[in-house]
Amino acid sequence: MTTVDTAPPLDPQSFRSDFPILNKTIHDGKPLVYLDNASTTQRPRQVIDAIVRMYESEYANVHRGIHWLSDQSTDRYEDAREKVRQLINAQHRHEVIFTNGTTAAINLVARSWGDSNLKSGDEIILTEMEHHANLVPWQQLAERTGCVLKHIPITDDGQLVMDTVDSLMTNRTRLVACTAVSNVLGTINPVKQVIQRAHDAGAVTLVDAAQSVPHMATDVVDLDADFLVFSGHKMMGPSGVGVLYGKEALLDAMPPFLGGGSMIRRVKLDSFEPAELPAKFEAGTPPIVPAVGLGAAIDYLQNIGFDAIHQHELLLTKKAHQILEGIGGIRFLGPIPELKSGIVAFVVDGIHAHDVAQLLDREGVAIRAGHHCTMPLHKRLKIGASSRASFYLYNTLEEIEILGQALEKARSVFQRKRS
Ligand code: PLP
Predict the structure, then answer these.
(1) Residues with C-beta less than 6 Å from any ligand 1 atom
(2) What is the 104 CA–ligand 1 centroid distance (Å)?
(3) How many Å lie between the centroid of ligand 1 and the Cα of residue 249?
(4) Model pLDDT, residue 224
(5) What is the pTM of this model?
(6) Which of 130, 187, 211 for mutating ligand 1's site (highest number of atoms within 8 Å of CB)?
(7) pLDDT score for 237
(8) Domains along the sequence of the chain with CATH
(9) What residues contact 50, with CB distance under 8 A and at least 6 apart?
(10) Catalytic residues
């Protein structure tokens, strides 16, 4: 994950009209202010058009038919794989496996690599800030194999305590799985360093890049990541498609996870021979159209440029911190804006996160409230729930001001109630 601060500033107004949903007004004419992008993003017309075009003129099943339409569909699907390969700088196209999301990709690794490589007493290192998707599959693996889970602790301001990493590693450490960007704290983790230390200890690494690939340049070769996973819907692609990147040698050695059509070379009544990569891990009819939509989203993002996107989100994050600090009674989760992605999670003194979200919604502002699939992180921070505003390239400084005004209104409603 690399960030540079030399990109010219983004002007979201110059492309906001690409996003039909952002023109919506809700609750008696209030403009929709969509600040729930860490949950899922909105799609530009270009992605919607690519999906419609596919269904209207190029759709058939892939890798199956010996007919023109199937060839067209297969070409579009494989073009999308190549776009993903280029996006993350994988060495080979067959190192890109389409799944239906980050969760599915992590489960694939836990079931396939985990079940065949881990035994009782082996160790997996995670962190205290992981999304449930990067906790539960490993807990399930621990239940199946008796392997042991350890966690890199975090500081009170939401950064990994890197000093503990070496002491957590032992000669039983087999895997280190870490999020690149926390979906709550926004912290941009030093994953390259984590990977290096894991490799020094002879462990395999998995990067949960669900919150980083959509926002910053990603290079799996530079990172030396063994596995890296992300979801299409968090980067303006359709839901139902995600990516598992894995190094060729690892994927080659892993048994298939799901069995069925497409993932075989040969089947007899009592046995089968798996197909080559990537088909080995794409059983059944894959997410054909979602993958093509993801390809269109990648084109759109690359056209704008990840450095510009990151700089824009940093601007929005700084502005949000500044405005929310001015309101008072707000505790931020995570580090200072310079150390994080465009995610601002907070707790408002005396108001439950769900009430905050509901009051903001009345003003047209969509944020998320709850534990954001990170219950252990919330426990570590000694809170039950938080509110989270999360930004993307199409958000504007004016929208951050509306967020601030809506929050101020929410506070005064509650203060009136209490007095
Ligand atoms: N990991 C992180 C860091 C996330 O933010 C999310 C989604 O919020 C996931 C994993 C799960 O992604 P999906 O629901 O697309 O499988």
Answers:
(1) 101-103, 131, 133-134, 179, 183, 208, 210-211, 231, 242, 373
(2) 10
(3) 26
(4) 98
(5) 0.97
(6) 211
(7) 98
(8) 12-31+305-418 (3.90.1150.10), 47-303 (3.40.640.10)
(9) 292, 293, 295, 296
(10) 373
Q: How many residues does the chain have?
A: 419
C-alpha of residue 211 to centroid of ligand 1, in Å:
8
| Chunked mean pLDDT (size 10), the chain, 419 residues | 61 96 96 98 98 97 89 97 98 98 98 98 98 98 98 98 96 98 98 98 98 98 98 98 98 98 96 98 98 98 97 98 95 98 96 96 98 98 98 98 96 79
CB distance 369 to 387 below 8 Å = yes
Compute, in angstroms, the gap from residue 180 CA to the centroid of ligand 1: 12
Per DSSP, the residues of 154-183 read: B-TTS-B-GGGHHHH--TTEEEEEEESB-T
Cα-to-centroid distance, 133 and ligand 1 (Å) = 6
Q: Which of 103, 228, 390 to mutate to test the pocket of ligand 1 (most atoms within 8 A of CB)?
A: 103
pLDDT in the model for residue 6: 57
Helices and strands: H and E segment counts in the chain: 14, 17
| pLDDT given for residue 80 in this prediction | 98
pLDDT number for residue 3: 45
* Per-residue confidence (pLDDT) for residue 413, from 0 to 100: 84
**Which residue has the least CA distance to atom 4 on ligand 1?**
210
Bridge partners of residue 330, in order along the sequence: 348
Q: Whose CA is nearest to atom 6 of ligand 1?
A: 210
CA distances from 118 to 109, 121, 138, 229 (A): 12, 8, 11, 20
Predicted local confidence at residue 121, as pLDDT: 98
Q: What is the pairing mode between strands 386-390 and 368-370? A: antiparallel
Cα separation, 99 vs 248, whole angstroms = 17
